[in-house]
Amino acid sequence: MVRQHLGPFRSGLVVEHPDAALETILGADGMSLDRRNEVPDEDALIRWIQAGAHPVLFKRSRVPVTRRVVEACPSLLAVQLCCIGDDSVDKRACAEHGVMVFNDPVSNGRSVVELAIGHLVALSRRLYETYDHTRAGGFDKSQDERFEVQGRVLGILGLGNIGRATARAAESLGMRIAFHDSREVAREVGREMGWEVCESIDALFRASDMVSVHVSAEDVVSGKRNEGLLTRAHFAQLAADRPQPSPRLFLNLARGFLYDPEELLEAIRAGEVRRAAVDVYPEEPRGKGPWTNPYASEPRVATTPHLGAATLDAQPRIARRVAHTLRSFGRSGALRDCVYRPRLELALGDVPSGAHTLAVVHSTTRGTRKAIQDAIFEAGASAESTAHQDFDELGIAYDLTALDRALTESQLARMVDLARDLTGEAMPIRSIRQF
Ligand SMILES: NC(=O)c1ccc[n+]([C@@H]2O[C@H](COP(=O)([O-])OP(=O)(O)OC[C@H]3O[C@@H](n4cnc5c(N)ncnc54)[C@H](O)[C@@H]3O)[C@@H](O)[C@H]2O)c1
């Protein structure tokens, strides 16, 4: 079935407590947001979207948007993530049904960076254990296993937004930077900064006194999910090529499934890694539900509950950015922060006032674009401005046209029929919006 939405977005479902700046900005734009405080399971999510016939879902990283959710909710046209990570959403299912997915790749970075830097210093000085010890009446002021960070090598695995900013902040503390990243463009940036490129993860661990992980959920170069990226063998090599004694610290504020926690624990017990800080886990609870901390028995691992971005500063910043992303998608069809093509910015050029915008998500099969153009021609309308983007990996394209008049529902239905005839596909056009 082709999803269709005529007019501006008037409603959206909000789950997982994004900041109320969403309501302030989108409310002023005529959108009414249905905010739910409980964290829904799949059935509840479907019920809530269906009940409001919501075209937009706002969520953070936990609630999964599965194929079943997408297929059960034909009103849905956009998923707006109020965070960076997009692996909670079945992007292929969304694309197949003409649902666009957006995130916020920038606004929470600073909070994560500051948490990483805090851990680097705190772990280097054994602050977490010392705090407990002195509260219990102890007074141990020995220098054993206490280090300065100045002059040490910080290894960054994943030199993206957060990895880069962490490296810059660490440099200002006098640290040296080594890094490993699979993307050539990231390596170029690192080289420009004068940082040491390591050609493998092994080489990075060997060259570093401390490793901080900032990879994304997927490696865009190999197209593979980064599950099991790190093993005990990596941990065992930490600081192998550095003068000893070395702090030998490990930080993971990126993703919980990058390694098996037991492998890190073994490395800590064996003394290969002295201390670690972990913010993310293979299994995290939905909402405030019960949870088993895999590191609970090991005081040398400082654990936090995925709070890298949980600050009073980052959350309103994210809400403001995603509200603007979604508002401009709703009003003009413009794309930014679309997870189908990070860093893409797409908008119509000069649009005369009074023009109507047609936004179509369709398959990349030859003939679909022609069907759209033919339908516009048959309707006697003319295109004032157009913009187009293929998302080849997902087999879809996004087509924006400013028209001098709106197409009627039967003219839109004709467009769908023409596309079917020209391509021989059952659903070459996935979604149509006109506003
Ligand atoms: N703890 C938190 O609360 C929190 C908050 C925000 C982001 N994050 C996580 O932080 C991580 C980094 O976010 P970002 O915005 O900097 O992402 P990003 O996409 O800007 O950067 C990720 C980098 O990792 C590299 N990479 C991915 N897989 C790799 C591999 N197998 N080998 C080498 N390099 C690889 C990519 O090329 C890219 O340069 C993400 O996993 C994100 O989900 C956590």
Walk me through this protein's architecture:
- It contains 14 helices and 21 strands.
- By secondary structure, the protein is of the alpha/beta class.
- The strands form five sheets. A seven-stranded parallel beta sheet has the order 9-8-7-10-13-14-15, with helices on both faces. Strands 1-21-18-20-19 form a five-stranded mixed beta sheet, covered by helices on one side.
- Strand 13 (249-252), helix 11 and strand 14 (275-278) form a beta-alpha-beta unit.
- It is elongated, with a radius of gyration of 25 Å.
- The model has no long low-confidence stretch (mean pLDDT 96).
- The chain binds nicotinamide-adenine-dinucleotide.
- Nicotinamide-adenine-dinucleotide (NAD) is lined by residues 84-85, 105, 108, 112, 158-163, 180-183, 186, 214-217, 219-220, 226, 229, 253-255, 279-280, 306, 308-309.
